Amino acid sequence: MNQFDRVRAALAALDRDHLRRVRHDNDWPCAPRVRVDGRVLVAFCSNDYLGLAGEPRLAEALAAGARRWGAGAGASHIVSGHYAVQGELERRLATFVGRERALLFSTGFMANSGIVPALVGRGDAIFADKLNHASLIDGMLLARASAHRYPHLDMAALARQLENSDATVKLIVSDAVFSMDGDVAPLAELMALAERFDAWLLIDDAHGFGVLGPQGRGSLAEVGLPGAAKEGWRLIQVGTLSKAAGVAGAFVAGDADVVEWLMQKTRSYIFTTGSPPALAQALLTSVDLIEAGDERRAHLGALIARLSGGLAQKRWRLTPSRTPIQPLTIGDNAAALALADALLQEGLWVPAIRPPTVPAGSARLRISLSATHTLAEVDRLVDAINRLEETL
């Protein structure tokens, strides 16, 4: 069998195991109402939690940014591709999350995969939640440090791993809100363990920034970090700007000297062209909308309550979550696809999530809510799922 035949066989295996991913082209801007393959659907699959991706004020700010700054950056940030508007955004983000300094990245994946090997290397040790995002896992592999993965949210297991480690440099890594389960890490406990065992703590708040905490300042602000920490310099936080913020990019925030070190050593920052400065212009408006977005967050909370309170859950299980991520676990890959297809026939778009994105045997519908959904749309989804649970 040659290499091409191996690829074709591997694709056939994906089909056999109901694991092939399929893309769909949406003809409309990001919103709960979409048009795919000529059909108008209600989508419950976007990370646009506050409904800002299609917000006209952001589109206007982006257009103004393009007129002022052009289309591209032209070089890496550390050569000539860093612009005044990006510096302004970094300062705004740092102030918003209560840190000394922030550093922009083109994507959250680039931030996470680059920061980890900038902090630790051979002979050091990383301690990571087993359900961390793939970007953190890749960063762990790139670091070439000793890797220790603790059971999901198990602080006792993490403490044992830290206690048994003789590494000089230790790094604890965790999502804040877990992207496929919607649960929130015990952030105060993680910080306490980092201080107790002299470790760095890297928290990826991709799905908490804009949604949780006072004025949407994020999961860490919700529990009073870093203010409540004795040694706040240990805490490094990442936030993405493509989810609740509605645009694109990411940032890392922390102690000024720590962020300076990351700027000097993070390869995914140094060796890539900077993001278009027009995006920063739009993101300045986005941060203002997040800060003033309590009404959006309140409506989002009402949608979450409506969904979780309405599902019957006789065979399928809705994971307890207070976030817009509401996973309905089906288990079998084919069964999850069948449910997604049945909902699609009713005009409801909720794709099935299967391994390797989630552990084997835990295929699910990742129901994702946005502040621009209506209660009637959530009721429609609940009614359809409850009915299909009786018939599929």
In short:
This protein has 14 helices and 14 strands. Helix 5 links the parallel strand 4 and strand 5.
Structural overview:
This protein is α/β, with parallel strands linked by helices and 392 residues long. It has two domains: 22-50 and 294-391, Alpha-Beta Complex (Aspartate Aminotransferase, domain 1); 56-291, Type I PLP-dependent aspartate aminotransferase-like (Major domain) (Aspartate Aminotransferase, domain 2), CATH 3.40.640.10. 42% of the residues lie in helices and 17% in strands. It is built from 14 helices and 14 strands. The chain has helices spanning 3-16, 56-69, 84-97, 108-119, 134-143, 155-163, 187-196, 219-222, 256-265, 267-270, 277-291, 294-310, 333-345, 375-391; strands at residues 33-36, 39-43, 101-105, 125-129, 146-150, 170-175, 199-204, 235-240, 250-254, 317-318, 325-331, 348-349, 352-353, 363-368. The strands form three sheets. A seven-stranded mixed beta sheet has the order 3-9-8-7-6-4-5, sandwiched between helices. It has a four-stranded antiparallel beta sheet with strand order 10-11-14-13. The longest helix has 17 residues, at 294-310. The protein starts with a helix and ends with a helix.
